[in-house]
Structures are given as C-alpha cells and as structure tokens.
Amino acid sequence: MSAIACEAGLSASTGDAKRTPFSQQWVTLSKQEHIELLMQARSWKSMHERAVQRNEWLQAQLRRQHQQAEQREAALRSELELTQARIRDLQQRLYGRKTEHGRAVDSRLREHAAWPRPRGQQRGARGHARTRLTHLPVREEVIELDSPQCPSCGLPLSIFPGTDDSEVLEIDVKAYRRVIRRQRYRCACPCRALPGIVTAPAPPRLIERGKFGISVWVSVLLDKFAYGRPSHRLLHELADHGVPMSAGTLAGALQALAPLFAPLQQALLDKLRSESHWHADETRWAVFVDLEGKVGHRWYLWVFQSRSVVHYVLDASRSARVVEAEFAGVEHGHLSCDRYRAYQKLARLRPGIVLAFCWAHQRRDLLLLANDYPELQAWAMQWVQQIGQLYHLHGLRAEVPPHSTQYAALDAQLRQAVQCMAEQRDAALADALTHSAARKVLKSMKTHWAGLTVFVEQPWLPMGRVEMWRGGGRSRHRCVRPFRLAVPYEPDRGSVSTSPSSNRTCAANASGSLPTHQAFAFERSRAGGNRRISPNFS
To answer: Within a 13 Å sphere around the CA of 159, how many CA atoms are in the beta-carbon half?
Structure first.
C-alpha cells in the first residue's frame, strides 16, 4: 500500500503543473491487481505487435499474389496475342492473296485513278494489233462462185484482177503408219564375196522392236513434262487419233527411256558446277511410296539454277547432304538462297562459297508480322518501304555503266541506305520497349546481315531469289516447275501411283531403293528460247 501510495503521490506531485478533473481523485490498488494490470498491458501490447506483423505479412502476401496475377495476366495476354497472330496467319494463308506484289492502283483510289480497271486492257489505251503468225506454213484455198453469172440477164461474170484475202489458223494432227521397205540385194558377181541376200539396214529406234516411232515418244514426253497432263488423258487422246496405247506400254516405255538421258544429265550437271553463281531452293513434294525407316510420304524437291542450267533433285530428306552432293568439287562461287541451315553448313565446309541471302524472305517476315500483330503494322511497313528503296536503288545502279558518275552517286545512296537500316535495327534492338515479335525479326536480320548485304559489293548479284521462279528480269532466266510422272498401276511391274489427275504424283519400283526415286530435269537457256528436257522418272 505504501509503495502504491508513494507512486500515487509522486504522480500527483509531477502533475501539479497541469491539473485535470481526475488528478484530485485517488485510486488504491492491491499488489495483485497492479501485477494483473501490468500483465494485461503487456499482453495487449504483444498482441498489437503480432497483429501489426500479421498485417504486414498479409500485405506482402497480397502484393506477391497481385504480382503473380499480373504475371499470369501478361502471360495470358501474350498467349492470346500469339494465338490471334496464328489465326490471322492461317487466315492469310488460306484466304489471302497468294502473291506479295502490290496492286498497281490502290483499291481505295481506284475510282479516282486514270485507269480504273484492275487488270486487262485499260479503257482508252491503244491495244496491240492482231498477231500474224507468219512463221507457219501456208495452205492456199481458192473459193469461186458456183455459177458466176448475172442474176438478171444470165450472162457470165468476168474475172476481176486480185482476190479478197483472209486467213484462219488451223491445226491438223494426223496419225499415220510409216511403212519402211528395205531394198534387198543379191550378189550377181562370180566372186561370191557376199553370201545370200543383202538388205539395207533398218533405221534406229528408241525402243528396240517397238512399234511406236520417235514422234510419238516426243509427244509423250512433252505432254507429260512440259504440259503436265495426266497419263490417262494422254492415252485417251492417242486413242481418239486412232493410235491406242495401253497403260503398261506407256509405263514400260518411260522406264526404258530414262537411261537415255543419263549422259545429258551428267553433262549439264558438270556445266552447272563449272559456273560461279547459283540459285537454290527446296519445297516439300508428296511421293506415295513406302521406304524402310521413313515415316510418311513427304519428300523434297530441290532446284539448283545457274546461268545456263536448271537442275531438279527429288530426295526423301531435307538434309545438307543433298546440297553437298550437288556442289561436289565446287570450292568458289556465290549461292543465292534462303536462310535454311543446309546452305549455311555448305558455306562453313567450303569457305570459298559465299551465301547471298534473299531479301524477299526478310520482307516476308515483316509482312507476316504486320498481318499477325495489327498494332505493329505501321512499324513493319516502314521497314518494308526501306527494303523497297534498296531494291529500287540496286536496280538503278545495275542499269548504268560501272565507272560513270551516276553509278558512283547511286552506289553512295545505296550504301547510305544500308547503313541507315543497320543503325535503326540496332537502335530498335537496344530499346527495351520493342515488341518481342518485332525483336525476333530484327535479330534474324542482324544474324544474317552479312549474307543480306553481299549485293552491295557485288552489283551483279540479285537481291532476291524470286527471279528463278518468275523468269525474265536481270538474270534472264526462264524456269518452270517440273511435273512428276504418274505411271498407271501395274501389278506385274510393282509400280504405284496416286490419282492420275494430280500433278504431285510419283511412280517408283516397289523395292524403294533411293536411286530409283532420284528425279532429274534440266532446262538449257538459248538465245532464241529455251529447250527444256525434264525426264522425271522414278
């Protein structure tokens, strides 16, 4: 009690300076009560501290959950953008235009354009006259009146000098039997050096003892490999001309003709390897044969083109060994190609071969980016315009003499445009705000920049590989895709084929050996045109 009273008195003495209504009232506590009050105060204080700590822990948990939710939302948004980009890409592939060429007149401005028609002969433009095919042989026909007389008096009409001429183009295809009569001789001299009867030698034939002549097999080869018509339609046409041919005869003859082109194949392949610039490409090709160890029917058609030769190779794989075999013995040259790893491996194994990557593929990446991500369309199209400017400057530079003042000016403009593009690319990659999809395209551009800019130092090189399919242009190449051979099914021969109406068909021996399926086709450019021999036999 004394201690409590002392504490109360001490508190009262310290509170004299500030009097309150309760400062004059005294409370007397027992020691036990004082201890209980102190324990309760400490308990409440401890509970308050734990409550504060728990509140802070809950807030930290809430912040972590909020951050995780934001990360999940960002991931879902990214996945949604990627899914939408894939949908737009598939829609473009399925329903979009199949060419990257822009229209000559924008559809929005078509009604105000000078030539409002999208294609064909334009209104008001001078058209070309009727083409006269003067190289064709002429069969003249003279048409006279049945009764050249006056209908009134009946007197005969006199002939007026000259004729009223016109011409009509006709095609006359006739099959005929070529009867070969070989003269026989008998020795009449007394020396008897030639025993028996001597006969003139028989003319050579493509197929021994075959009844069809060279003109028939020329028509078959052109119809199959130049015009791409299925075999059964060819057989129907031959039957309509009175020359019936069985499907087995056609299949056997094509297999017999294939070895005749082997020397030509090797000669043209040597010619291709001897040149210094090539184009290369590959595409998948359906071949419906079963090979041991291979799943599915996806093969690949490779094309290798030089200035004078185009070589097609059909192979079961897309490996680099096809490229290495094609350029066997070649150590130096320039190869225009895409960014496929097989060509890059060839350049690593043979440092003398320089790869010139195709700018059309880089442009396509930007167009796909603009289609897949609409918010990046303006950004991507700016890059497309810069690539178009490179094409324009490169084309202008190639048209002027190399040592002229105009060439030097165009060369400086081209180099400046290339340098500006490289600086913009590096700046965009260094920017943290650059979209991930755009960053991926720019990284690919930077990785292949050395191959993309080969044309700067080599003005004669094209910027793209599109010329090999379009024909014409600076390279003066004309090339068409070959058509595969569709041999009718014959159980005794063991050959297989798909529907004869399909161009992507192949027939091969059922044994499935790789040399059997090797296809070859060549096209040799000439000054007056092209001669294309494409025996795609399997």
So the answer is: 5
